User: Fold this.
Amino acid sequence: MSGPRVELLYWEGCPSHPRALADLREALASLGRADVAVSLQRIDDENQARAAGFVGSPTIRIDGADPFPPDAGEPAALACRIYELADGRASPTPDPGALRERLERMLAERG
Assistant:
């Protein structure tokens, strides 16, 4: 049995993906899952964005599921994604605590 597939999709036009990658790796390590590899997928154009269902950079997926699902009907686009921090402020990356909690839940569901 293979482990979960963890991906970070990003667009070079948004500078936040290195921070998102660091937060993602830190969250996995804190969950005792530093063994889980994170694959990076760069999205370069609108066609790739549509094909990948990419709604903005950075996007994290666990076995294809987004731990921070976009609103229904959110269009695919080369754009910077906005997340909400626990204190309500906007952020270019997910709230680290929320990321850890959602990863924990999603990884537990996948075994």
Remarks:
- The longest helix spans residues 17-30.
- Helices lie at 17-30, 46-52, 96-109.
- The domain at 6-109 is CATH 3.40.30 (Glutaredoxin).
